Structure formats: C-alpha cells, structure tokens
C-alpha cells in the first residue's frame, strides 16, 4: 500500500512488507531493494525520508544496532501476538489481513506512516536532535524527567527518576535517551493524542481483530492467555531482533510491569474502532460463539450447573432482547448504546437466572435444597434433583483449591527475563551485574526448593474447571434436573420461587462514576457473593463488573414493574 | 477508574514476600526457598525510597533459610554471604559481622578470624565513618578471638611448665595475642553498652599479667558508671574479682548491695546474707534478714534448702537472743498474707518431707517461728520427723514449743 510501482518481475502491483521493511511482490515473491522509507515521493512515510533527502548523517551505532522507530516495534509485537493466536487455533486471516490492515489504518490515521508529514514538524524534531550542547537551553524541549513522568505506563517511577538523575547532561546522540530513533519524540509529542500506542493497546488491536472475525475467544480468555504466557506481552521485546536495541525511553514504552485490565483493553478497543472509522462489524448472530446463548452454555458447564438452566438463560436473553443482532454487533462510533462485554454479559445472565430460581437470599436456596434432598431420597427414576447445597459444597471446594493455586502463582510470577534492560549505556554494567546476581541466587535457592519444579506453562485451555459425568462421586451436576425448583402452571414450567430482589433500585450514571452500580460486599447475601466470586474467578475480573451487568439485566427485565413501583419497595412479585 | 486491583510487579512481590514469611514462621524451609527464588528479581528494581529494601530482605531471609535448610552446606552459606556483602555498601560491615557470628556458631574460628581481619581493613570513603560502630564491634570481636588464642597458648604453657618444660615460642605468641586482644577489648568497653563477654576476657588478661588496679578500675567503671545500662552481671563480676583478690568483707558487701537492689532473687544473695549475718554491725545484720526474705519471695527459691537454712539460722539466732524480734515482725508483716499458702501449705509439707528432709527441716523451723507450733506445715513435718525417730526433728519440736510465745508476739 502506498507503493505503486510495478513489480520488475511480474509487472503486478501487489506489494507486501517483509520484516525488514522491504517491499516484496505478493504475486511472485520478488523482494525489492526498496525499503519502506524510500518510497514514491508522493507519499512521505516518515521523518527518516526527510533525513535522507536532506543529506544529514545517519546515526550509526557502533554496537551493531540499527535505527528503528517505535511503531516498527509495535508492529513486531502485534505480529508476534498474531502468530501466537494462530498457534492457538485462530484463523490465519487474522494475522495476514485483518490485524495488518487495522494496524496500517491506525498508522495512517495517526500520521505515523503512510501519509504526508507536515515538513515543518519534522524539521523541528530533527533540529532538536541536532542540538548537541546544553539540552536545557531549549525551553520547549522537555527534560528527561518530564518525559518519564508523562508516560502512562506504570512501574516504579522512582526507579526511573533515579536512573535519569544519574545520567549526566546529554551532549551526545539521542541513543542515550532511547534506542529507537523517536522514543523521546514519541512520548513527548503524542501524549496529547488519546490514542498513542501502548502495550495494552496491542491487546485491544488483537481483540478487535478477533471480534471482527468472530473468533471463539472472549476478551477475558484472551487476557488469561496473556497472563498464562501463551500470547507475548510481558517481555515481548525479547523477540525483537538483535539489531533493534532497546534502552532509555523505549523501556517506558515497551516494558510492562502490570497485567492488562479488562476495562482498559475493552474501552481502548472501542475508542480505536471509532478512531479508525471502521464500519459496522460483522453480525453476531445466534450461531456465533459470542452470542449469549452460546456463552451461557459454556459457562454453565464450567460452573457445574445443570444443563436445564440453559432454557432459562435463553428465555431471559430473549425477553430482554440482548440476543438481537443489532444489540450484539459492534457499531463503532455509536456513543448512545452501551458497549457489550460478551463474556461478562453471559455470566450475568446466569447469575440472574440463579436469582430467579433460587432467590439467593441466604435462606430460600437452602430451603429448596433441603426440599430437593428429601425428594431425592425417593427419587428412583430419571436424574437426581439438583440440590443447591451439594453443588455449593463441591464447587466451593474446587474453587478454593484453584483460587489458592492462582494466588500462589501470582506471587511466584517472574517478571524479568534473560534479556537485560538498561536506561543508558552508563548503567549497563550495573544492570548486568545485578542480573547475574539474581540468576545466581535463583539457582542457589531453586536447588533448595526441593522437588517442586517450576511447572511448565500449562497448556492453554478454554475451560479452567472441568467436571466429568463419569465421576461416580456425584460431583458433576450437568445432568441434574431442575424439577425440584420448578412447578407447572398453565402448562408452563415456572419457578417455585415467587420473589426476586433487585441488586439496586436505581442505576448510576455510568459516565459520571464509571459504574452502573456499586458493589459492596456487606450489602448482599453470601450466596450472591459466592456466585459472583465464582464467575469472577473464571473470567479473571473484579466481581463489581459482573454486578454491573446483573443490575443492567435486572433493570431491563423488570423495566415495567420498576416504573410502576415506588422507590423504596425493592421486593417484586414476578 | 482506579485500578487498585491491578496486579503489578510490586503487588506480586509483596504477595511473594508474605508467602515467604508464612513459610519461615512455620519452618518450612523448602517452601520458603521456593518463594525466595521468585522474589530475588526484586533486586533489579530500585526501592531506594523504602525503609527496608529487597537487598536487605533477601540477605536476612536467605541467611535464615540457608542456616536451617537440611540440604544447605556451610560452603553454600559462605558463598551466599559473600554475594550479600557486595549488594549494599551501607550494610557491608553488618553483613560481615553476622557472617562471623554464624561461622563462630559453626565452630569455624579461623574462618571467622580471617573475615574479621578482612573487614577491619575495609575502607569506603565516607561510609567508613558512618559505619564506625560496626567497625568497633568488628575490632572487639577480633580482640575476643585473639583472647581465645591467648587462652589456648596459656593453657599449653601451663601444661608444659607442669611437665617441666619451658617454651619460649609459646610464651612469645601468648604475649603477642595478649597485646592484640587488650588493645581492642579496652576500646570497646569504653563505649557505654553491655559488654559482658569483653569485660570478662579483658579482666582475665589483666589479672594474669598482674595489673589488678586496672582490672579493678575497669570493673568499677562497668558497674558504677551511670552512662552504662544497668547490668547485674557487672556487679557480679566485680564481686567475684574482689573475692579473688581477697578483699575485705566490707568491700564485698558493698559490691553486692546494688545487685540486691536490681535482682533480689540473684543466687549470690545467699553469699550476701551469709556475710551480712556474721557482721558485727547491726544495720548489716538487719539488711541480711531483709535480703534472705526477699530472695525467698521468688518461686525459684522455694526448694532451695541452703536459702532456707540461712533464714532459719538467722531467725533462730534472733529468737534465742530475744533481741530484734521486731525485725522479724517487720519482714513478716508484708508476707503473712501470702507466704503461708506460698511456702507452708500442707501439700508442700508432704512433698518437701518426701523429697528433701533437710529442706523440710529448715522450713519447719521457720514456719514454727512465724506461724506457731500449730501451723499445718510444722505439725506435719515434726510429726513425721519424730515418727521417723530423727533426732534433729525432736530437737526442732522442742525448740519451737519452747519458743512458741515468740510467735504470739510476732503475729500480734
């Protein structure tokens, strides 16, 4: 794209980009010598062109490094992530077409490449580079400390400041600031733009592509795979080629010290979709994995709940219209509709159904359970009646075990990697020495850890909890019957439970306080906590997010009644 | 929106640390090592704002694990300590010192000495001045080890001279160790502190070489200089020294006075009382009574026959002389409410009789005087004693019966 010459070999105009930034002909795979920067003069891709055309000296690093730009770095990251997703079973289209195009579109729109650059801007930037003496003499040029504080990535700011302050005034090339050519420029200039590329945003890109292709991976799963190490994120710069040296401010951009948060990635994705002016995404129909009916089925299985509950989740979905194509499909730029979190939504539907059938007020569900237990004693034909108590015990036990394992894993997480990072050439030796000591200590104490070897990365799996019908101990509840909690009325099966309690009578304004409702543990029944906790574990998100969706669903479900009822009456009859 | 729940490096390491701490508390060394392995990468982060940084944490925790872990060897331990020394220059001497302690605990005296010498020669700009205290300690401990070597040489010398040999080489070495030790030990005890082991060794050296006046001065300083923290041992050392020197009873008594004030239950109270009882001065004898009563207030002395015999002897003497009965009355006043149950119950009478007849004899005498011939303790013991036809118990019975009016005067 952007390169319109005909291929020397096959005369086609069908160009792609190699890793090295060279153009290759897709038809005949002829690799040209032309690199991305030296392009049709109609399109000035980036400042490097200006550099060349002005005949300025190219920076040549004597440690065998090459010049590279921040966006090239991100491009590499995305490529690695896409490859990992492909290895997980995502169709190759994602990498070769969708993600690629999204990325190029982003570059174009954010004027980092594939577009005309206002020449004046570039020159200014270059002249800033050129200044070889006192950095502070230019009042507009921010100090290193300022740049560091601008970066939105987390991590130990004190660290960086102390490193920064230990660096003397710069009089050399920009390689002291960053290994990349535009590291400092990137942080300084682009901060005003909301969509400056960051590491978490790479996941937004991935998710966006997955959503476009309607791949069966939810955002929570994607993030879980990232944490489990199946998708490069932490220390992804390990995969950068040797020549791309990372140091200084690059670290602020590419090194992460925290796991991405669902909300952050989700919101950014939507911003991105709008920014790129994308059209309506492909329809999410009821045969899609992301449709609530499908996801509910999956989560019901994982939560060890009876399959029969699926009828109920479908009923709720239908009743409040969240299974409609228009509701589920993403329409970028449409600010009025609430963005759909498919996974959280499905989980919330199940929670609502459980509340419908079992009330979950810390009394009724246990009563029903006892009742079912009684009936089960005389129950000889068909499957056993579902007993809430038994289910609770089984699931709680497993959940506690898994939660404990997860907590320990989180505490044992290793954040650093083999490839050392240093802010400047000056503290390279110090960093390397420290790294060596850390490795030594790890070896020494690793040997004393006994037979406990650090487990290999667990195989990526879609299900974290699994229950087998073959277990004779009765720990699988999939086949259990809901007859114990249902009754027939006018030929329809309805819940025996006549009551329902709303999580909140009034929804908050999400735009103002960020939530639809506020989840405080003390205010809700223990059973409700438990159920929220279960899905919170499965989706690896805070319970409050699920709670928000539950409130939303309830308000849709009881819409009419709410309008009629007065504010202080919270118990409704269905 | 705030992302406080965000899991980041810091939080992850905090959690890791709490797992380590739990494991340490439960002495699960393998598990602690497992988590420490994951914690050590904190070193690659700078925590200069924190009060206790990762390097110190790793040093302390690593030391504990390596010291207790069954599969860890001294070699590994030493290797680890050397690494820790390079980690933080502000802590260098402290780490050296603790390493030395561990070596000493493991009986590696020579290695400990080498480490101390090495540490002594360490210089690092302004840090040297800042870590002055640690340096003094290092010098002091080297002095201590020099003393230890001196002591070994001395023993050899003594052996040889007994066998009739004279060994000049050994003697020379001994003297040289003395010089080295004396210099450092003298320095440290100048600084206010608790230096029992240094003081003892230094005094030992001084005594051997006949410098008694210096030794006396040192011990007096140590015991009486108010800048030094109150230390019962200081008085004990002084007392023992004076006794060795054959000093007068007067000096000995004055040396133990403060000890009685600080630690009324000290074992030397028996000696103290014995000296005081025999004194010609009334005040001293009065003090003696006070001292022995005070000692027997403590549970640890309940079955100390010697202490009871001191008390019994003094009380008997007072009763017979019929002078100063008011002394007994004064001492008994604050004790009459609880001593009977504490010392003179029937249960104790039975037990004392069965386990230690001498003890029961002495106690019975005291009980008889203080509580009269009808008290449980006396009755039981004297009855059994007479039944067993032991002469002294018969004498006891007679004595108490004869002096029963005394009891009435005391208790009234």
From TrEMBL, chain A:
<keyword id="KW-0804">Transcription</keyword>
<keyword id="KW-0238">DNA-binding</keyword>
<feature type="domain" description="Rrn7/TAF1B N-terminal cyclin">
    <location>
        <begin position="74"/>
        <end position="241"/>
    </location>
</feature>
<feature type="domain" description="RRN7-type">
    <location>
        <begin position="2"/>
        <end position="33"/>
    </location>
</feature>
<dbReference type="GO" id="GO:0042790">
    <property type="term" value="P:nucleolar large rRNA transcription by RNA polymerase I"/>
</dbReference>
<keyword id="KW-0863">Zinc-finger</keyword>
<keyword id="KW-0479">Metal-binding</keyword>
<comment type="similarity">
    <text>Belongs to the RRN7/TAF1B family.</text>
</comment>
<dbReference type="InterPro" id="IPR048540">
    <property type="entry name" value="Rrn7_cyclin_N"/>
</dbReference>
<keyword id="KW-0805">Transcription regulation</keyword>
<dbReference type="GO" id="GO:0008270">
    <property type="term" value="F:zinc ion binding"/>
</dbReference>
<dbReference type="InterPro" id="IPR033599">
    <property type="entry name" value="TAF1B/Rrn7"/>
</dbReference>
<keyword id="KW-0539">Nucleus</keyword>
<dbReference type="InterPro" id="IPR048538">
    <property type="entry name" value="Rrn7_cyclin_C"/>
</dbReference>
<keyword id="KW-0862">Zinc</keyword>
<dbReference type="Pfam" id="PF20645">
    <property type="entry name" value="Rrn7_cyclin_C"/>
</dbReference>
<dbReference type="GO" id="GO:0070860">
    <property type="term" value="C:RNA polymerase I core factor complex"/>
</dbReference>
<protein>
    <recommendedName>
        <fullName>TATA box-binding protein-associated factor RNA polymerase I subunit B</fullName>
    </recommendedName>
</protein>
<dbReference type="InterPro" id="IPR021752">
    <property type="entry name" value="TF_Rrn7_Zf"/>
</dbReference>
<dbReference type="Pfam" id="PF20644">
    <property type="entry name" value="Rrn7_cyclin_N"/>
</dbReference>
<dbReference type="GO" id="GO:0001164">
    <property type="term" value="F:RNA polymerase I core promoter sequence-specific DNA binding"/>
</dbReference>
<feature type="domain" description="Rrn7/TAF1B C-terminal cyclin">
    <location>
        <begin position="258"/>
        <end position="448"/>
    </location>
</feature>
From TrEMBL, chain B:
<dbReference type="Pfam" id="PF14929">
    <property type="entry name" value="TAF1_subA"/>
</dbReference>
<protein>
    <submittedName>
        <fullName>TAF1A polymerase</fullName>
    </submittedName>
</protein>
<dbReference type="InterPro" id="IPR052669">
    <property type="entry name" value="SL1/TIF-IB_Component"/>
</dbReference>
<dbReference type="GO" id="GO:0006360">
    <property type="term" value="P:transcription by RNA polymerase I"/>
</dbReference>
<dbReference type="GO" id="GO:0000120">
    <property type="term" value="C:RNA polymerase I transcription regulator complex"/>
</dbReference>
<dbReference type="InterPro" id="IPR039495">
    <property type="entry name" value="TAF1A"/>
</dbReference>
């Amino acid at each position: 794209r952007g390169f319109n010459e005909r291929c020397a070999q096959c005369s086609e105009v069908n160009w792609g980009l190699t890793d090295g930034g060279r153009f290759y002909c897709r038809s005949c795979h002829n690799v040209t010598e032309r690199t991305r920067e030296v392009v049709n003069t109609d399109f000035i891709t980036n400042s490097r062109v200006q550099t060349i055309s002005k005949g300025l000296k190219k920076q040549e690093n004597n440690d065998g490094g090459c010049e590279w730009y921040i966006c090239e770095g991100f491009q590499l990251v995305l490529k690695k992530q896409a490859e990992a997703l492909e290895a997980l079973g995502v169709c190759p289209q994602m990498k070769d077409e969708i993600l690629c195009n999204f990325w190029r579109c982003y570059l174009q729109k954010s004027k980092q490449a594939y577009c005309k650059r206002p020449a004046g801007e570039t020159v200014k930037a270059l002249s800033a580079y050129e200044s070889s003496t006192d950095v502070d003499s230019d009042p507009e040029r921010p100090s290193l400390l300022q740049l560091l504080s601008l970066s939105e990535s987390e991590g130990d700011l004190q660290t960086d400041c102390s490193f920064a302050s230990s660096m003397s005034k710069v009089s050399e090339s920009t390689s002291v600031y960053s290994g990349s050519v535009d590291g400092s420029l990137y942080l300084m200039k682009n901060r005003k733009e909301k969509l400056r590329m960051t590491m978490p945003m790479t996941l937004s890109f991935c998710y966006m592509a997955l959503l476009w292709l309607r791949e069966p991976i939810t955002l929570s799963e994607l993030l879980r795979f990232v944490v489990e190490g199946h998708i490069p994120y932490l220390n992804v710069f390990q995969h950068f080629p040797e020549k791309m040296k990372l140091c200084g401010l690059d670290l602020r951009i590419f090194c992460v010290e925290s796991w991405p948060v669902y909300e952050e990635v989700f919101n950014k994705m939507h911003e991105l979709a709008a920014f790129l002016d994308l059209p309506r995404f492909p329809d999410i129909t009821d045969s899609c994995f992301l449709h609530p009916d499908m996801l509910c089925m999956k989560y019901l299985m994982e939560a060890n709940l009876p399959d029969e509950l699926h009828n109920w989740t479908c009923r709720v979905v239908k009743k409040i219209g969240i299974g409609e194509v228009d509701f589920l499909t993403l329409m970028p730029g449409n600010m009025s509709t609430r963005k759909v979190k498919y996974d959280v939504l499905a989980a919330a539907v199940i929670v609502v159904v459980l509340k419908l059938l079992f009330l979950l007020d810390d009394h009724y569900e246990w009563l029903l359970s006892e009742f079912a237990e009684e009936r089960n004693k005389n129950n000889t034909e068909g499957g056993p009646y579902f007993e809430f108590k038994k289910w609770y015990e089984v699931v709680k036990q497993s959940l506690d075990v898994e939660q404990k394992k997860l907590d320990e894993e989180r505490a044992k997480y290793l954040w650093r990697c083999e490839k050392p990072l240093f802010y400047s050439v000056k503290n390279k030796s110090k960093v390397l020495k420290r790294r060596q000591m850390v490795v030594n200590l790890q070896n020494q104490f690793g040997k004393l850890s006994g037979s406990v070897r650090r487990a290999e990365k667990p195989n990526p799996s879609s299900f974290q909890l699994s229950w087998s019908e073959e277990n004779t101990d009765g720990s699988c509840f999939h086949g259990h019957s809901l007859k114990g909690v249902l009754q027939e009325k006018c030929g329809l099966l309805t819940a025996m439970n006549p009551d329902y309690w709303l999580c909140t009578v009034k929804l908050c304004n999400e735009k103002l306080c960020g939530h639809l409702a506020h989840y405080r543990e003390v205010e809700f029944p223990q059973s409700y906590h438990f159920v929220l906790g279960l899905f919170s574990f499965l989706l690896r998100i805070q319970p409050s997010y699920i709670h928000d969706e539950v409130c939303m669903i309830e308000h849709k479900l009881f819409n009419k009644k709410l309008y009629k009822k007065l504010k202080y009456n919270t118990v409704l009859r269905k | 929106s705030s992302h406080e729940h965000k899991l980041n490096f810091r939080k992850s390491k905090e959690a890791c640390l709490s797992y380590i701490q739990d494991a340490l508390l439960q002495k699960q060394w393998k598990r602690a090592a497992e988590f420490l392995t994951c914690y050590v990468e904190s070193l690659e982060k700078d925590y200069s704002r924190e009060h206790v940084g990762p390097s110190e944490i790793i040093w302390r925790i690593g030391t504990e694990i390596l010291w207790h872990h069954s599969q860890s060897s001294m070699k590994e331990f030493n290797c680890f300590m050397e690494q820790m020394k390079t980690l933080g220059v502000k802590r260098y001497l402290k780490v050296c010192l603790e390493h030395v302690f561990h070596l000493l605990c493991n009986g590696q005296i020579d290695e400990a000495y080498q480490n101390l010498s090495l540490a002594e020669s360490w210089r690092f700009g302004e840090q040297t001045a800042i870590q002055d205290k640690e340096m003094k300690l290092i010098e002091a401990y080297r002095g201590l080890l020099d003393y230890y070597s001196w002591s070994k040489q001395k023993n050899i010398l003594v052996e040889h001279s007994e066998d009739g040999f004279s060994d000049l080489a050994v003697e020379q070495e001994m003297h040289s160790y003395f010089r080295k030790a004396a210099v450092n030990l003298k320095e440290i005890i100048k600084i206010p502190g608790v230096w029992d082991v240094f003081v003892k060794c230094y005094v030992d050296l001084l005594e051997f070489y006949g410098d008694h006046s210096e030794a006396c001065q040192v011990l007096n300083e140590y015991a009486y200089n108010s800048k030094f923290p109150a230390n019962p041992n200081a008085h004990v050392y002084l007392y023992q020294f004076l006794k060795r020197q054959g000093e007068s009873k007067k000096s000995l008594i004055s040396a133990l006075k403060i000890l009685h004030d600080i630690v009324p239950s000290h074992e030397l109270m028996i000696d103290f009382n014995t000296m005081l009882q025999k004194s010609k001065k009334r005040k001293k004898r009065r003090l003696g009574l006070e001292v022995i009563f005070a000692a027997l207030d403590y549970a640890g002395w309940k079955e100390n026959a010697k202490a009871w015999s001191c008390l019994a002897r003094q009380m008997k003497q007072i009763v017979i002389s019929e002078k100063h009965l008011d002394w007994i009355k004064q001492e008994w006043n604050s004790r009459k409410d609880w001593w009977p149950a504490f010392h003179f119950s029937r249960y104790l009478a039975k037990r004392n009789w069965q386990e230690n007849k001498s003890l029961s004899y002495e106690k019975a005498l005291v009980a008889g005087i203080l509580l009269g011939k009808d008290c449980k303790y006396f009755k039981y013991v004297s009855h059994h004693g007479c039944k067993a036809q032991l002469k002294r118990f018969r004498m006891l019975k007679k004595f108490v019966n004869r002096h029963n009016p005394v009891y009435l005067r005391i208790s009234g």
